[in-house]
Amino acid sequence: MRTRQDFVLFTGAIIILFNACSNGSRTQRLEMSKTEIEEEKYRPGFHFTPEDNWMNDPNGMFYLNGIFHLYFQHHPESNVWGPMHWGHATSEDLLNWQEHSIALFPDDLGAIFSGSAVVDFQNTSGLGSLENPPIVAIYTNHDAEAAEAGSERFQIQGIAYSLDEGYTWTKYKNNPVIQNPGIRDFRDPKVFWMDSQKKWILTLAAGQETQFFSSQNLIEWTFLSSFGKGIGNHKGVWECPDLFELKVNGSDETKWVHLVSINPGGPNGGSATQYFIGDFDGTNFTLDPNFKTDMQNAHHFWADFGKDNYAGVTFSNWKDEKGNPLFLGWMSNWQYATKVPTYKWRSSMTLARTLELFKTANEYKLKSSLYMDSEKVASKKVKIKETAIGEGKIIVDQKEINLASAKIKIDLKNIEENTYTFVLANQDGDALLFGYDHNQKQFFIDRSKSGVVNFSEDFSNKLSLAPRFGMEDELSLEFILDKTSIELFYDDGETVMTEIFFPHKPFETLSLQTNNLTQTVFVGELVELDPKKIQ
Ligand code: FRU
């Protein structure tokens, strides 16, 4: 358990670190060990963080024999971005993670940027055998020297394979497998097996578009088509695409979802992930006509409206009983990721989420729900009976539930033309505000007073906003807290907001306030989580 003293000590530690940073990374690491205890106060308990140093995008995620594999963009020598490696971690429950040795190191073709991995069960690549199918990783080699020298062709796609279920890797001897056609940003390949076409499909980001390729063997790739010209958000570079087919909830109809991360250009500034819904025939991705009309009115198609969920994609070889995939993103934003006040480690991943497709009167939409067995990890539960809000209500204080590690579900009934603000606060005066403005039909997060915020203007200078799609006068909200993050799922995951924060000490109370007297009532359930229970 962390104590109050940890938090007081921390400010001093930051000063030491800032001095140390200017002396180069070796000194920095030595100094950091002194502050290890203080550092841990910000390290989440059940979100993945690297033990040391820098992390960005999730890479190569796949599931095999009861184990989820997560690779990640990693700089093992520094707490800021640099020559990228693929770090590696595994988990059986997506809450308790074990980090392994580095999977892929930079090579003669460059650093190892983002990409994906598939289990080649039929050994189509010939890199393993039917008895021992290879795991094949497809990634971008980024040649920083060529980029500096002014070449346009500094990003190419390479592969590596593993014959021990993802723990050790061999680079393919004839890399690259896809040459650069003369596009500066040409990266982040994501591959899947398209059973109806009996071929592998690869999508990658190419400038402000995506491209599709196909292959029989994961080695020889044929260009199929491009997507995205004049469609969707183009305020930044397109990155980390994904493509998968989903059943529409409650029917046998299927549609294809194309995820595309963009930086900058997110709905609340910086990085975010947009999505497109349409059809994929093995060659072209075409937008659904309804989706097209909607998009012209307002571009509301974001997998997450919060500022801290980027570069997320789905796990290979994993679907739930309804056929829905699991998604996980990087819980930060390029606007400030290298400046957040953690030093030993930087950045964590979001929790894994199931993606589903549903249809409203005239459109398809994506919704997300948490994938976790909270019953197994619940260490305490408090139920709230129907309660009138009146002039503001304390819902919980730390004596009942440890708010640093909790899953909270609240349903508001009879909502009125009012603003409903949840306040997470501590006695030091830090407060994280979030909630719903029923006049504007809008959700918001305000982290301007949430603790340490001065490391970047972009962190808290504006409220983060998100639209509400439903009109009902009942609102359900579920959120999960893990020391320095909140993941909010409104209306069963129709609107999602994920953000990080750094309070001087843990939040102790959660209250609900309104700007007018109201008849609204709420019920709720608070679950304190201890994921170590299932280790
Ligand atoms: C997205 C990204 C990817 C790239 C990687 C480099 O955050 O820019 O496009 O492959 O990060 O670390």
What do you see in this structure?
The longest helix has 18 residues, at 4-21. Helix 1 runs antiparallel to helix 2 (25-34). Mean pLDDT is 91; it is low at 1-32. This protein is mainly β and 535 residues long. The chain is globular, with a radius of gyration of 23 Å. It is built from seven helices and 33 strands. Strand 3 and strand 4 (98-104) form a beta hairpin. The structure holds beta-D-fructofuranose. The site of beta-D-fructofuranose (FRU) has 12 residues, from strand 1, strand 5, strand 9 and strand 13.
Outline of the structure:
With 535 residues, this protein is mainly beta.
- How many β-strand runs? 33
> Which percent range fits the helix content?
10-25%
Distance between the termini: 18 Å
CATH architectural type of the largest domain: 5 Propeller
**Class of the largest domain, according to the CATH hierarchy?**
Mainly Beta
Domain unit count: 3
Structural class: mainly beta
Q: Quote the CATH topology of the largest domain.
A: Tachylectin-2, Chain A
Q: Estimate the strand proportion.
A: 35-45%
Summed over residues and divided by their number, the pLDDT gives a mean of 91
Tally of separate helices: 7
Q: Identify the overall geometry.
A: globular
Largest sheet: 6 strands, antiparallel
Roughly how many Å is the radius of gyration?
23 Å
| Strand order in space, largest sheet | 22-33-24-29-30-31
Low-confidence region ranges: 1-32
CATH homologous superfamily name of the largest domain?
Glycosyl hydrolase domain, family 43
Bound molecules: beta-D-fructofuranose
